[in-house]
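Reviewer 2 asked us to include a model.

Predict the structure of this chain.
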Amino acid sequence: QTFVIDNRPGASGIVGSELVAKGAADGYTVLVTTNTTAAANLSLFKKLPYDPQKDFAAVSRLCMLALLLVVKPDFNAQSLREFVRYAKTRAEPLSVGYWSAGSQVSAALLKSLGGVDLLVVPYKGAAPAMTDVMAGQISLTFADFAAGFAQVKAGKLKGLGVTSPLRSGLAPELPALAEEMPGFDVTTWIGLAVPAGTPRENIRRLAEAAHREAAKPDVKTRFTAMGLDLALLGPDEFALFIDSEVSKWARQVKAAGIEPE
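Predicted model (structure tokens):
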């Protein structure tokens, strides 16, 4: 069956989420949801045009992923420890671009755990943030792993570490930031959701189809190449997971000292 992909970027996924929340509950309108849209936005914004816990029905968690801290190749640091040391010697703060809840919390954790002053700059996506790092417009960003690591391999950026508690199997040479900054753990995820009220049978069929496709070797290979760890959950398990994520991201946002907008 044909899929029509309707990209609605920006505003931390709020635009696309609101569109699906108000869509037909027939199983033909599906949201690619994330930790940002389903959980963190509740703590990052005072008011949302949708209710993540009431307006959607969980279909399937698909994968987990880490972010990658990137700087220019000639940046005056080869490790997170050197980055913190350098940042503390500057009269003016370094600038960090964020484009999602994960990157925003990562930036705030870097400030609080590292004890450094950073100018935090919002972006509509990882790509424009990375472009500005390359151009020297901002000092660093937390990129999605696949896009960031591709630029590292191309020599256009330098990676200082991943936000997950363990190193990535795709790039074991890159340290986990937690190795030099204990407590640094920002792991994000991607899943599928539909408007609340979608028939249970339609949800079941969507979940089964997603799991069936994800299990195919070529699909798994493509996931791995993008830095995505397959982590499938069915509708009921995914719904419980989302509930736990709402609490987790509320704690992380508070611990990072982020005030809701």
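Strands lie at 31-34, 56-71, 94-98, 118-122, 140-144, 158-162, 187-195, 229-233. The mean pLDDT is 93. We have added this to the supplementary material.
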